[in-house]
Amino acid sequence: MDEIELPRVLQQLWGIEGRTRPGPKPAFQVGDIGRAAIKLADAGGLSAVSMSKVAAELGVTTMALYRYVEAKDDLYVVMLDEAFGLPPDVSDAEDWQQRITTWAEAFRAALQEHPWILQVPVFEPPLSPNQLVWMEAGLRAFEDTPLTPSDRLSAMLLVNIYVRGTTGLSVNMLNLPPHEAAAAGERYARRLRMLATPDRFPAITATLEQPQEFIDNDPTEFYFGLTTVLDGVQSLISRRAT
Amino acid sequence: MDEIELPRVLQQLWGIEGRTRPGPKPAFQVGDIGRAAIKLADAGGLSAVSMSKVAAELGVTTMALYRYVEAKDDLYVVMLDEAFGLPPDVSDAEDWQQRITTWAEAFRAALQEHPWILQVPVFEPPLSPNQLVWMEAGLRAFEDTPLTPSDRLSAMLLVNIYVRGTTGLSVNMLNLPPHEAAAAGERYARRLRMLATPDRFPAITATLEQPQEFIDNDPTEFYFGLTTVLDGVQSLISRRAT
DNA sequence: CGCACACTGTGTGCGCCATACACAGACCAT
DNA sequence: ATGGTCTGTGTATGGCGCACACAGTGTGCG
After folding, report:
1. pLDDT tens for each residue of B208-236
2. Cβ-Cβ contacts under 8 Å, A124 against chain B
3. Which of B95, B127, B238 is nearest to A208 (CA)?
4. What number of other Cβ atoms are within 10 A of residue A65's Cβ?
5. Closest nucleotide to residue A26 (Cα to C1')?
6. Which nucleotides in chain D lie closer than 7 A to a protein CB?
């Protein structure tokens, strides 16, 4: 229909060309800009991504970028689409648990590879190509269940939210060199022990008495929580099956 | 012990005084700064909070704030502690589901009242007084369950993550005047229908065929997901009980 | 065939941001 | 009373996103 109302960046990501254009040929494509920005973000976090640094990375002036993106938020859209890439194939999985687990693992891996993703401010639901493919893949994980399409959306969002949240806890706080991360965890436990006195904070104290890592990067913790979430989905499935 | 190693802001929030001080009396306390910043953030989002605007709100110069906080991140800590306040009392609840549900509702309410909370970058686990009280309350919700302290921490985090995530979806995208929000949702559905073609995106298409709000502020949706999460916790409890 | 004009990248400049630093005055312990 | 420490101020710096005017480029249309 009227794809004119689509933001320009989305048009470019989807490969929808506008009319043929007079004037000089563009020196690159949005994808190139996205990759340059990702390179900076992987190295120095999202705060290392500025229009001028991205432009410098590409060898052009800052304002040249505004021929490709309307604002910095558009740059984020491109970065996210590029960073996620395509989801794994799950066609040979046997049941929905296996499929959604593979999906969740891949999602988590993407977040760990590009920790800055979790710092990207999101103001709109996703519409870029790869994001939709991820969405499609997540929904298809529930293909042979009695869940309604609306249920499937909720279930996928639940897993999505879980992975984002749980990975964010470790990634946002522990994206340091491992020994430094351990030191930070230790320091946190020490401070917590100091502030959360047993009289006013008995439950926190009890947690601290167990010799566990308080914040943990351990994949075991990830699967533990994921299992819990999937158990919840299973009970929804059971309810729908009756 | 050596509370000297605590960042200054935390010392002030916890009311731990340093030694007696020569020099002029401070004109206000960190809490005042936090409240001024919250006022700005509630009105204009987190981006409306700048050191100079907060200072102007208080009638002092920008640099005066740096006598109270070491950096802007410290300001965020103060804002969060102030904005969350204290969790609700759940002492008269009958079971853990009721307690954690009340806790989750209050958490959600806080996020909806202060949508900017979800935009605050978090680099450290919480140590401020009110945050620890919330944490304690969340852990206590599982008091009469067979869950271990470590399980309880996981379960609380799971609910925390769910509320943050699900509220974030609606709040980040729909914190507009209601009719404008509806228009945005409508526009999104239209674009999705255009881009997610049935041949390549059958599952998304199926979801769109149901006449539902694709992104929904509806509390029903909130309880639906929460129930699913709690069902998962219930199955963990059942496992632990055996 | 040529030319009008849309389009690209450049240069300059604006207003805002966080925060470093030097300073003047205020107050408490001695 | 006075020394030293703390408070708030004034000034300055380097970075940011982005608006705008401009010069050159190449394509579709006359």
Report:
1. 997 666 555 678 899 999 999 999 999 99
2. 173, 184, 188
3. B127
4. 21
5. C8
6. 3-12, 15-21, 24-28
